[in-house]
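Whiteboard transcription, Tuesday session. T.W. wrote the C-alpha coordinates on the left side:
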Protein backbone atom coordinates (compact mmCIF):
# COMPACT_ATOMS: atom_id res chain seq x y z
CA UNK A 1 0.00 0.00 0.00
CA UNK A 2 2.90 2.38 0.70
CA UNK A 3 4.23 1.76 -2.77
CA UNK A 4 0.99 3.02 -4.34
CA UNK A 5 1.27 6.39 -2.58
CA UNK A 6 4.89 7.04 -3.47
CA UNK A 7 5.34 9.77 -6.00
CA UNK A 8 7.72 9.45 -8.87
CA UNK A 9 10.28 12.23 -9.03
CA UNK A 10 10.68 13.75 -12.45
CA UNK A 11 14.11 15.02 -13.36
CA UNK A 12 14.96 17.94 -15.61
CA UNK A 13 16.47 15.47 -18.07
CA UNK A 14 13.14 13.61 -18.41
CA UNK A 15 11.18 16.82 -19.03
CA UNK A 16 13.62 18.09 -21.63
CA UNK A 17 14.69 21.62 -22.45
CA UNK A 18 12.11 21.95 -25.22
CA UNK A 19 9.16 21.08 -22.96
CA UNK A 20 10.53 23.28 -20.17
CA UNK A 21 10.71 26.25 -22.57
CA UNK A 22 7.14 25.57 -23.73
CA UNK A 23 5.89 25.51 -20.13
CA UNK A 24 7.72 28.74 -19.35
CA UNK A 25 6.33 30.41 -22.49
CA UNK A 26 2.76 29.31 -21.68
CA UNK A 27 3.08 30.72 -18.16
CA UNK A 28 4.42 34.01 -19.51
CA UNK A 29 1.52 34.29 -21.99
CA UNK A 30 -0.99 33.70 -19.17
CA UNK A 31 0.58 36.41 -17.03
CA UNK A 32 0.61 38.91 -19.91
CA UNK A 33 -2.96 38.04 -20.91
CA UNK A 34 -4.26 38.64 -17.40
CA UNK A 35 -2.58 42.04 -17.14
CA UNK A 36 -3.51 43.31 -20.61
CA UNK A 37 -7.25 42.44 -20.55
CA UNK A 38 -7.09 40.61 -23.89
CA UNK A 39 -10.32 40.73 -25.85
CA UNK A 40 -11.93 43.61 -23.96
CA UNK A 41 -11.97 45.78 -27.07
CA UNK A 42 -12.26 48.92 -24.94
CA UNK A 43 -9.57 50.93 -23.25
CA UNK A 44 -10.30 52.02 -19.72
CA UNK A 45 -10.17 55.82 -19.94
CA UNK A 46 -11.45 56.84 -16.53
CA UNK A 47 -9.75 60.08 -15.54
CA UNK A 48 -7.89 59.95 -12.26
CA UNK A 49 -8.36 62.47 -9.49
CA UNK A 50 -5.01 64.16 -10.24
CA UNK A 51 -5.58 64.55 -14.00
CA UNK A 52 -6.55 68.13 -14.68
CA UNK A 53 -7.18 69.81 -18.02
CA UNK A 54 -4.91 72.58 -19.25
CA UNK A 55 -7.61 75.21 -18.86
CA UNK A 56 -8.27 74.15 -15.26
CA UNK A 57 -4.54 74.42 -14.52
CA UNK A 58 -4.38 77.88 -16.12
CA UNK A 59 -7.44 79.01 -14.16
CA UNK A 60 -5.93 77.70 -10.91
CA UNK A 61 -2.63 79.54 -11.59
CA UNK A 62 -4.46 82.77 -12.39
CA UNK A 63 -6.50 82.46 -9.22
CA UNK A 64 -3.36 81.74 -7.17
CA UNK A 65 -1.57 84.76 -8.70
CA UNK A 66 -4.58 87.01 -8.14
CA UNK A 67 -4.79 85.94 -4.50
CA UNK A 68 -1.09 86.73 -3.96
CA UNK A 69 -1.50 90.11 -5.66
CA UNK A 70 -4.55 91.00 -3.54
CA UNK A 71 -2.85 90.02 -0.29
CA UNK A 72 0.32 91.97 -1.19
CA UNK A 73 -1.74 95.02 -2.22
CA UNK A 74 -3.63 94.86 1.08
CA UNK A 75 -0.42 94.68 3.13
CA UNK A 76 1.51 97.36 1.22
CA UNK A 77 -1.39 99.85 1.23
CA UNK A 78 -1.17 99.90 5.04
CA UNK A 79 2.52 100.90 5.05
CA UNK A 80 3.18 104.55 5.84
CA UNK A 81 3.97 106.65 2.77
CA UNK A 82 3.00 104.00 0.19
CA UNK A 83 -0.52 105.26 -0.58
CA UNK A 84 -2.58 103.56 -3.28
CA UNK A 85 -0.95 100.42 -4.67
CA UNK A 86 -1.27 98.13 -7.67
CA UNK A 87 0.67 94.87 -7.83
CA UNK A 88 1.53 92.44 -10.63
CA UNK A 89 3.15 89.06 -9.95
CA UNK A 90 4.44 86.70 -12.62
CA UNK A 91 5.15 83.01 -12.09
CA UNK A 92 8.06 80.96 -13.38
CA UNK A 93 6.35 77.59 -13.18
CA UNK A 94 3.15 75.89 -12.17
CA UNK A 95 2.45 73.98 -8.96
CA UNK A 96 4.50 70.79 -8.71
CA UNK A 97 3.48 67.60 -6.95
CA UNK A 98 6.22 65.35 -5.57
CA UNK A 99 5.04 61.74 -5.71
CA UNK A 100 6.30 58.81 -3.68
CA UNK A 101 8.41 56.31 -5.66
CA UNK A 102 9.34 52.73 -4.89
CA UNK A 103 12.81 51.66 -6.01
CA UNK A 104 12.96 47.86 -5.87
CA UNK A 105 16.15 46.16 -6.97
CA UNK A 106 17.09 42.57 -7.59
CA UNK A 107 20.50 40.98 -7.96
CA UNK A 108 21.57 37.44 -8.64
CA UNK A 109 24.96 35.77 -8.73
CA UNK A 110 25.23 32.43 -10.55
CA UNK A 111 28.30 30.19 -10.59
CA UNK A 112 28.16 27.38 -13.15
CA UNK A 113 30.62 24.56 -13.61
CA UNK A 114 30.64 22.25 -16.63
CA UNK A 115 31.77 18.61 -16.83
CA UNK A 116 35.24 19.53 -18.07
CA UNK A 117 35.92 21.68 -14.99
CA UNK A 118 35.31 25.05 -16.62
CA UNK A 119 33.65 27.70 -14.47
CA UNK A 120 31.46 30.60 -15.43
CA UNK A 121 30.11 33.26 -13.12
CA UNK A 122 27.36 35.67 -14.09
CA UNK A 123 25.95 38.59 -12.11
CA UNK A 124 22.64 40.28 -12.84
CA UNK A 125 21.31 43.43 -11.24
CA UNK A 126 17.90 44.91 -12.00
CA UNK A 127 16.80 48.34 -10.73
CA UNK A 128 13.34 49.70 -11.31
CA UNK A 129 11.44 52.82 -10.27
CA UNK A 130 7.69 52.68 -9.79
CA UNK A 131 5.27 55.37 -8.67
CA UNK A 132 3.26 54.33 -5.64
CA UNK A 133 -0.47 54.44 -6.40
CA UNK A 134 -3.36 54.68 -3.99
CA UNK A 135 -6.97 53.77 -4.72
CA UNK A 136 -9.85 56.15 -4.26
CA UNK A 137 -13.34 55.24 -5.50
CA UNK A 138 -11.88 52.73 -7.96
CA UNK A 139 -9.37 55.21 -9.43
CA UNK A 140 -5.63 54.75 -9.00
CA UNK A 141 -3.72 57.99 -8.33
CA UNK A 142 -0.10 58.68 -7.41
CA UNK A 143 0.61 59.11 -3.69
CA UNK A 144 1.64 62.77 -3.33
CA UNK A 145 4.27 63.34 -0.65
CA UNK A 146 4.25 67.13 -0.92
CA UNK A 147 3.24 69.93 -3.25
CA UNK A 148 5.52 72.81 -4.19
CA UNK A 149 3.87 76.14 -4.84
CA UNK A 150 4.68 77.88 -8.13
CA UNK A 151 7.93 79.83 -8.16
CA UNK A 152 7.60 83.60 -8.52
CA UNK A 153 9.52 85.11 -11.45
CA UNK A 154 9.04 88.79 -10.70
CA UNK A 155 7.00 91.45 -8.91
CA UNK A 156 6.03 94.94 -10.07
CA UNK A 157 4.56 97.39 -7.56
CA UNK A 158 3.07 100.71 -8.61
CA UNK A 159 2.61 102.98 -5.60
CA UNK A 160 1.67 106.64 -5.00
CA UNK A 161 4.77 106.97 -2.83
CA UNK A 162 6.96 105.19 -5.41
CA UNK A 163 9.37 108.14 -5.77
CA UNK A 164 10.39 108.12 -2.06
CA UNK A 165 13.54 106.04 -1.49
CA UNK A 166 12.44 104.92 1.99
CA UNK A 167 9.11 103.65 0.56
CA UNK A 168 10.96 101.87 -2.28
CA UNK A 169 13.27 100.15 0.25
CA UNK A 170 10.33 99.19 2.50
CA UNK A 171 8.37 97.68 -0.40
CA UNK A 172 11.43 95.84 -1.76
CA UNK A 173 12.27 94.41 1.67
CA UNK A 174 8.68 93.29 2.22
CA UNK A 175 8.47 91.53 -1.17
CA UNK A 176 11.86 89.84 -0.62
CA UNK A 177 10.73 88.60 2.80
CA UNK A 178 7.34 87.33 1.61
CA UNK A 179 8.31 85.65 -1.66
CA UNK A 180 12.09 85.05 -1.53
CA UNK A 181 12.44 86.98 -4.77
CA UNK A 182 15.86 88.57 -5.44
CA UNK A 183 16.00 92.38 -5.49
CA UNK A 184 16.69 92.58 -9.22
CA UNK A 185 13.34 90.81 -9.88
CA UNK A 186 11.37 93.49 -7.97
CA UNK A 187 10.48 96.80 -9.60
CA UNK A 188 8.85 99.70 -7.72
CA UNK A 189 7.27 102.47 -9.81
CA UNK A 190 5.53 105.78 -8.98
CA UNK A 191 1.81 105.78 -9.68
CA UNK A 192 0.62 108.40 -12.16
CA UNK A 193 -1.78 110.87 -10.58
CA UNK A 194 -4.87 111.64 -12.67
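and on the right, the sequence the group agreed on:
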Amino acid sequence: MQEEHQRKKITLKEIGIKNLCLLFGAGLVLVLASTMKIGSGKEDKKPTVNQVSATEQTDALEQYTKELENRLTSILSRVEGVGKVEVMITLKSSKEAIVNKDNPSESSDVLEQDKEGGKRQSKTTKNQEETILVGENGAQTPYVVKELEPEIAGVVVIAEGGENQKVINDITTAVEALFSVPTHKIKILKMEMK
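Someone added at the bottom: The domain at 52-95+149-194 is CATH 3.30.300.30 (GMP Synthetase; Chain A, domain 3).
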